[in-house]
Amino acid sequence: MYAHIESTVTAIVCLLTAFVIQRIYEKERKQQNLNTISGIKWFGLAIFSWGIGALVTLILINYAAFSATSKWLVYWSVFISLINSLFILLSLPSIEHQKERNMIVRIVERFSVKEFMMLFCGIFFMIAFVFIATSYNNQEISNSFIWLIDIPISLVVALALLYELNKAFTNRKMKFMYLPCFSLFVLIVIAVSHRIIPHEMVEEFISLSNWSLIGIITSLSFKFIFILLFSILLYSWKFLSEKEQQQSEFALLETERTALHSENEKLKIANESHIDTIQSLTKKLDRKKKKVAKLKEASKIELSDRQKEVLANLGICGAKKSYTEIAEAMHISVDGFQAHVYQIKKILNISGSAGKEQLIAYAIENKLLQFATISCD
């Protein structure tokens, strides 16, 4: 009777929970990275395996006339327990925290999902084959012996799960969840012990009906606590995920704001630089305009033929000869030559010590060398 109640409650609760988790997974999969939410899928499958295992057990007992102590039912229960352990192991890497991963999780992370499933199934298939071959036709071997296939992996999974859950809740500043996590571990240990302790040893201390009741309560309790912890972890993950997303969006906006501010500063600097450039170009343009104005004025200057001759001779020989030498070559007095130069400077508005060079440049630029009457050989 107790076994029937356990299977019924487990089937109903676990299958409904698995359905809800699957719906959550499908919804989140459309919004999140699959790697991030893969843990939801594996946790859901772990709970589903409990539910489907209990449902099949009910069907076999009620409609196929299997005994509750049938070895085939024990084999089936061990198989479901191993599958459940596999799904829980695959879900552990998705439990997020900042601490170092335990050895079991590091081993799982070394393989792809497909590789780990093949490795897990291969190892336990060989072990299970040995146990089944040994126990099936041997009536002296009890069901407790068959459960030894599952005991080591169940304890390893329980320890790894306890470690990862504690680290995850610590990371979420939920240390008050230590007690439920530890309670889950203790209940798993009790449930495992209940399976392997022979009934003959128990009868000395407690009736078998009470012992069965303890086993059922323990089994249901750790399943419910597992579902509860997973639900809390799921919604805390969901809350933190949304919070992290908001923080990420805020950080992105802050980065964009900083970039815009930096770009604005660059534009200001560039604008100031452009203003300086414009002012500099304006000054240069003003100077050019003044030069052009001077050239225009110079182009309006009318020189006499004698003045053009003096400028031309100066343009040809001024760089090599002095005023005296040029005057002698022109067969005029030095004073007369200098008088012409003085008048030309006055007309061209040339003054200063570099007057001679300016006169030479003017003669060359205005093509007056054609009026030269001397050579500079």
TrEMBL record:
Keyword Membrane (UniProt): yes
Gene Ontology biological process: regulation of DNA-templated transcription
Record SMART domains: HTH_LUXR
Membrane-spanning intervals of the chain: 6-25, 45-66, 72-95, 116-133, 145-165, 177-197, 209-235
Record domain HTH luxR-type: where: 300-363
Transmembrane listed as a keyword: yes
Coiled coil region boundaries: 271-298
Domain of life: Bacteria
GO molecular function, one term: DNA binding
Keyword annotations from UniProtKB, A to Z: Coiled coil, Membrane, Transmembrane, Transmembrane helix
Protein name: HTH luxR-type domain-containing protein
Annotated organism of origin: Kordia antarctica
